[in-house]
Backbone:
């Protein structure tokens, strides 16, 4: 049998944030659901965007000046947000479901570096996945729309911001999912909370009188985050970066709450 | 070294651990014994800082676990063999754990080899049998070459060969000067594994003593002897507290003497022994007696207060 002990060397094996990030990257890339969620994200961004662009070519707008070619190509982002969000939830709720969270927290007893490690890994991975996906979809959409001279170029005002901002938005949704998963510690519960947060406020708002709903709508999570993907200013939306900033603020609040609970609660 | 002081844990209305104090010393295998639901796993979670105590404190190697900067170097733990992601391979599970402490990949391969999982290291952990999962859990406990090893029911689901292997491993870890703390709900298992015993029941300490002392003090050890001359042997086995009873097929049941003493006495008298067995069942009975007292005590207390 192989030897198990080795001479003790003190001072080694300290936990550091960089080491925990590396560990979380190993976990993320070996998580079966990560592959599925990534595939869904790309498929939704590209599939819906291209399909919608083709549809608009078949049914051209009455007033091409009012046509937001960029947001047509990026239509899939509104669906892909659920795929990245679910990935965020599963990245941590899976550890609670399998009990491996105890192994993780015993290895990182101060706990917060684990959540930070997950957030950094997930956020960066989502960007690396979404920036090319969104960019490629925009280019494909432009190619389709340009046959009817409806296309916008990347150099046009606000277009590059809308394209990259949409990728940032998708990454932010994954972090929102991570926060909800960490807070609720259950896959089904976390996913429900994610859908609820992204969908339900708009539905509830629809029941209110229009003057009120028109004023409040822009501050809801999904409309706020979606503002960054619009090139033509929308009177009901916040300014692009303000909207994304507000969405990130919501995400930060959920993650902060999750971090506080993680420190406090029994694992 | 694990120092548990007045440790208490309450979950809602249930008192899972109730004023528990004991010390686990390095160099010997310490068995942590108690019936299911006695609070063993809770105590282990409290030691690892996974749950926060309602009262009291635990020090591991001189400090609260959360304060150790190199936790895997201090404590290697196996709490639940099934606590791996079923879709991840054994290798990646261990690699992710190792990376938190900057432990090299070669060490991951080393522990996989040491627990005999080399052939299945890249298979999904969800496909593992309970025995293989136990081995994976033990591998993760050994990863950081820890000074203290904490294993919750490591023998569950292992076959005979596996049980023997874990026993030898625990002895070796203790001989290397490590603190080895192993829980079980089976007395027989612990009797041949541990040198020291901590017994709890209903969250309270029932006994904290050496295994030899436990066997002596409980005095219920029974030896089954089969011999060609039962009467002649029985006549030779005298002494205070010694009780010999005759069974069918030339079998004697002896209490109050060890197998060593009986064997020696038989040899001195030139009597042939056909069988000489320490009866484990009596150990289990002693343990049940011990823990039942505690359970009844609690039950009667609860009855009195209501």
Residues:
């Amino acid at each position: 049998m192989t030897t198990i002990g080795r001479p003790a060397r003190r001072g080694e094996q300290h936990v550091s944030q960089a080491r925990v990030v590396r560990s979380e990257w190993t976990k993320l890339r070996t998580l079966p659901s990560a592959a599925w969620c990534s595939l869904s994200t790309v498929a939704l961004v590209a599939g819906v965007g291209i399909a919608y662009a083709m549809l608009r070519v078949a049914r051209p707008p009455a007033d091409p000046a009012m046509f937001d070619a960029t947001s047509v190509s990026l239509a899939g982002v509104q669906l892909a947000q659920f795929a990245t969000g679910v990935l965020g939830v599963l990245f941590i709720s899976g550890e609670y479901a399998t009990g491996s969270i105890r192994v993780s927290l015993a290895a990182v007893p101060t706990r917060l570096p684990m959540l930070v490690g997950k957030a950094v890994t997930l956020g960066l991975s989502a960007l690396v996945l979404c920036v090319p996906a969104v960019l490629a979809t925009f280019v494909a959409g432009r190619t389709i729309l340009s046959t009817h001279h409806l296309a916008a170029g990347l150099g046009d005002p606000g277009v590059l911001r809308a394209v990259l901002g949409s990728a940032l938005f998708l990454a932010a949704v994954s972090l929102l999912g991570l926060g909800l998963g960490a807070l609720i510690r259950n896959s089904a519960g976390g996913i429900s909370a994610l859908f609820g947060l992204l969908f339900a406020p708009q539905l509830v708002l629809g029941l209110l009188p229009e003057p009120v709903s028109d004023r409040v709508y822009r501050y809801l999570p999904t409309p706020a985050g979606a503002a960054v993907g619009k090139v033509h200013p929308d009177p009901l939306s916040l300014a692009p970066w303000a909207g994304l900033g507000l969405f990130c603020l919501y995400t930060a609040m959920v993650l902060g709450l999750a971090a506080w609970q993680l420190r406090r609660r029994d694992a | 070294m694990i120092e548990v002081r007045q440790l208490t844990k309450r979950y809602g209305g249930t008192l899972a651990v109730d004023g528990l104090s004991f010390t686990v010393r390095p160099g010997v295998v310490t068995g942590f014994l108690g019936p299911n639901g006695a609070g063993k796993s809770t105590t282990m979670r409290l030691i690892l800082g996974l749950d926060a105590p309602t009262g009291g404190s635990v020090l591991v190697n001189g400090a609260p676990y959360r304060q150790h900067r190199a936790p895997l170097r201090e404590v290697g733990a196996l709490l639940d063999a099934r606590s791996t992601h079923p879709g991840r391979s054994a290798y990646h599970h261990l690699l992710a754990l190792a990376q938190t402490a900057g432990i090299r990949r070669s060490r991951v391969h080393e522990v996989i080899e040491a627990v005999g999982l080399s052939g299945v290291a890249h298979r999904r952990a969800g496909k593992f049998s309970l025995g293989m999962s136990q081995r994976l859990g033990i591998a993760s406990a050994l990863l950081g070459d820890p000074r203290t090893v904490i294993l919750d029911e490591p023998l569950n689901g292992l076959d005979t060969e596996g049980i023997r292997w874990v026993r030898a491993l625990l002895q070796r870890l203790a001989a290397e000067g490590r603190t080895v703390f192993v829980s079980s709900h089976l007395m027989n298992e612990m009797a041949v594994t541990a040198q020291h015993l901590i017994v709890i029941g209903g969250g309270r300490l029932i006994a904290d003593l050496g295994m030899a002392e436990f066997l002596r003090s409980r005095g219920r050890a029974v030896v089954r002897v089969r011999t060609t001359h039962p009467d002649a042997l029985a006549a030779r086995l005298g002494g205070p507290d010694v009780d010999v009873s005759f069974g069918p097929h030339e079998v004697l049941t002896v209490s109050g003497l060890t197998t060593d003493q009986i064997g020696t006495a038989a040899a001195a008298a030139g009597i042939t022994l056909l069988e000489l067995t320490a009866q484990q069942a009596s150990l289990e009975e002693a343990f049940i007696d011990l823990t039942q007292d505690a359970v009844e005590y609690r039950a009667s207390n609860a009855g009195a207060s209501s």
